[in-house]
Each structure stands twice: as structure tokens, then as C-alpha cells.
Amino acid sequence: MDSATWLYIALGIFLAGLIIAIIGVVLLIVGMKEPMKEIKGSANKLKERADKLQLEAANLSHHANELKEDIQMKTEKVTVLIDAAKGTMNSVIDLNASVRAITKNIASRVDHDRENIAQVNEWSNGAVKLLTLWENQRRTESNRPTYTSPSLRNEKQY
């Protein structure tokens, strides 16, 4: 066989291989059409889910920001309330201190007044004794017979 024949046989084998390769590629492409549609549909569904998740995440972020603002406002109100309670507590403490000071002052005055009361009792007892003595003297003077002249007695009878 000559080399031209071999060349034709090689060319035929090459063309047969090329045709088989082309048919294989066409069949591969045709066979991949359905799975590609399914993949495309799955990708679209995945994209829709991702969009929904993104929307949900945005809503959650919005709600989280609202809650954060609400918590900040309530924290400020609670802080004001706590400050007011501390102020009230301080006022009660100050009031308690004032009451203690007043009570202490009253107690010291009462102690001082006890001394004054004792003095007043002494003076009043002395005054009572003087009054009693004076009344006793007066009674004794009124009980003493007084001398009257007989001539005056006679005049009185007229």
C-alpha cells in the first residue's frame, strides 16, 4: 500500500473521529440544556430567597434601630427617675438630719428648762411659805383680843 492510501485512511479516521467528537459535543450540549434550565431555575429561586432574606434583614435592622432608640429613651427616663430618687433620698437624709438637730436642740432646752423648773419650784415653794407665814400671822393677829376702853363700849350700846 502506498502512502497516499494510508493518507486517505488516516484522513477518514480523523474525519470519523471529528464527526464523533462533534456529535458528542452536540449531544452534550443538548443533554445539558435541561440541567442548565434547572440550575437557572434554582439560581433564580436562590436569588429570590436572597432578596427576601435581604429585605428581612433590612426590616430586622430597622426594628433593631427602633428598639435601640426606644431603649435609649427609656434609659434616659429611668436615669431621670433614679436621679429623682437619689434627690428624694438626699432630701430625706437632710430632713432626717434637720429633725435630729431640732430634737437635739429641744432635748437640750428641756434639760435647761428642768434647771429653770427646779428654780421656779424653789421660788414658788419659798413664795408659798411666805404666803403661809403671812396668813398665819394675820390669823394670829385677828385672834388676839384688842383692848377697847369701857367708855367706848358704853357708847356703842346707845
From TrEMBL:
Keyword terms of this UniProt record: Coiled coil, Membrane, Transmembrane, Transmembrane helix
Keyword Transmembrane annotated: yes
Coiled coil: 36-77
Keyword Nucleotide-binding: no
Residues annotated as transmembrane: 6-30
InterPro entries reported for this sequence: UPF0478
UniProt protein name: General stress protein
